[in-house]
Amino acid sequence: MHRQQFIVHHFRQIALALLLFGVLPNLFAQSYKLMRFEEDYSILADSTRHGYARIKFSPLTADGKIWLSIGGEARAEYVDFNNEDWGRLQLGHNNFLLQRYSLHADIHFGKRLRLFTQVRSALQHGRKNGSRQIDEDQLNIQNLFIDGTILQQDNRSLLLRIGRQELDYGSGRLISVGEGPNARRYFTGAKIAYNVGKVNLEAFAMMADTIRPGIFDNSPSKQINLWGAYGKITVPKQANFDLYYIGIYRDRSIFEEGTSAETRHTIGGRIWKYGGGFIYNLEGAYQFGSFGKGKISAWTASLDIGYLFEESDLRPSINLRNDYISGDKKAGDGNLQTFNPIYPKGGYFGFSPQIGPVNLIDIHPYVTLDLLSNLKFQADLVYNWRHSLQDGVYRPSGSFNLAGAASRKRYIGTAYLANFTYAASKQLSLVTGIQYFKTGAFIEEILNTPKNGVFFNGRVAFKF
Fold it and tell me: Which of its termini does the chain have fewer beta carbons within 10 Å around, N or C?
């Protein structure tokens, strides 16, 4: 009880401080980006700046060609998870506090060169079974890169980025920065981006660190283990297209098939449209490569369609998702048909899913409502089956969780979700949600004492 009171008291203190800061006026129209280095405050160069706006654009030379922009974030989240992993861990109520802080500086040396640096602190307190990699990284460098614009002509540009940086592509199905979890992802390497009109092409070669909970103690991989190319054609109010290739190497990957080195190649495409009226997001990918001495052949296909009643009160949208994600066909034969989501978005199948995008079939209807101009509501219902009876269940990160080859049951369970998002201002937002997971025949057979899971969270975030 003492631990729970401490967490709640600490969360209230943080929330109060953020609410006080959140009354800052909206001094400019720009919204904060998922990747803070994508924000552009050069528009403030010719304006009269006072107070907060001076932080966003501070000339360092008399002619204003060298300038500095500073920003940051403070986020606190209270979590109460009852029967995590459907009671397998025998933890009961597991309530804890997550905190995330970041501070960044963006220095522009004219129009063609800049340095972006960002430090972050992700903290966890009270989790019974300790911190996961997504929970705690007490102090680390999140971004530290140099941008060089090689070409800037008419509607064409060519940019080279070298250093530590965040990546996020498409719907976050395969490479996501991981905004939902407490500790966001980063990589170290080089990326080149070419833009012409509404076409964007990027190629990258990266190293991924092993995240540890301490201060500047993450372990670098010292070898390229993520590489690829991503192309996007954006046509406003029309169909948009993505095409991509992603390669990974991991010296130790764990699946129900076994543990071995993995070299995997993914080719895929996406067609999507958001906005008013008919909305859709269709994506498919195929994977091949090697797993130890065996061969990889895996795939995924996803359909997300809906309709947004943009002119109606509450702007309701009605949506239906359906995902097919391959699992291993034959346990123990050395070959692998299990799909690898690589670096997926943590909340792709709900804001706190217990099931990852591996060996899965799901049907996922959901609705959204704008209860107020700054208050959004979403309700989801997710039915989950195993794609292959020769493979098990995996976590949201894609890591192996429960073996399944011994069971002939397919249905994993049903998740019921509801969440609210309130934007008090451009700086301050609050999110709260609840999830109930009703176990299905597979979980009830594979675990000795299966229990339904309940998850609740409340999050407050301040950005500047």
Answer: N
